[in-house]
């Protein structure tokens, strides 16, 4: 399974993918800034981590910038994000809120805040990654889906595959 499977259940977007890499490595790709800067964001975008405190209550503040001229109007665009870690079970699960923000870390009130639960499961073929993004309501979920979240996250996971399979 090198493709992403996705479906919606109520107000939750569920995406999963199998990585042919050890669970510890896939988890570390989500839990260290140096790893995240290599793959976080869709293809054609670069990510810079500005703060990263990987513990419950800790903040992750980052900026993705489109560096691909072929992406037209998106070229040069910045997209800031701010996450707050809720729960961390090393090598098994990361739970955090994820929000659109500005450069100062102020959350954008016009875009939804989601709670994301990422699970990392051992399989005979590698690591099964399951991400559940919970939204406050169906409208918020639909808003993010229409923004291209499934396609963007799929592209992002392709980049992660390249990073952990090296």
- Beta-strand content: 35-45%
Distance between the termini: 18 Å
Broad shape: globular
By secondary-structure content and strand pairing, the structural class works out as alpha+beta
**Strand arrangement across the biggest beta sheet:** 1-2-8-7-6-5-4-3
Secondary-structure element series: EEHHEEEEEEHH
The percent of residues in helical segments reads 10-25%
Average per-residue pLDDT, rounded, comes to 95
The description of the largest β-sheet is: 8 strands, antiparallel
* Whole-angstrom Rg: 15 Å
Extended strand count: 8
The total count of helices amounts to 4
Low-confidence stretches: none
How would you portray this structure in words?
The chain has 166 residues and is α+β, with helices and mostly antiparallel strands. Helix content is 25%, strand content 42%. The protein is built from 4 helices and 8 strands; from the N terminus they run ββααββββββαα. The chain has helices at residues 23-31, 33-39, 138-146, 149-164, and strands at residues 5-9, 12-19, 45-52, 59-66, 78-89, 93-101, 114-123, 126-134. It has an 8-stranded antiparallel β-sheet. The radius of gyration is 15 Å and the shape is globular. It starts with a strand and ends with a helix. The mean pLDDT is 95. InterPro entries: ASHA1/2-like_C, START-like_dom_sf. It holds the Pfam family AHSA1. This is SRPBCC domain-containing protein.
Short structural summary:
InterPro entries: ASHA1/2-like_C (IPR013538), START-like_dom_sf (IPR023393). Helices cover 25% and strands 42% of the residues. By secondary structure, the chain is α+β, with helices and mostly antiparallel strands.
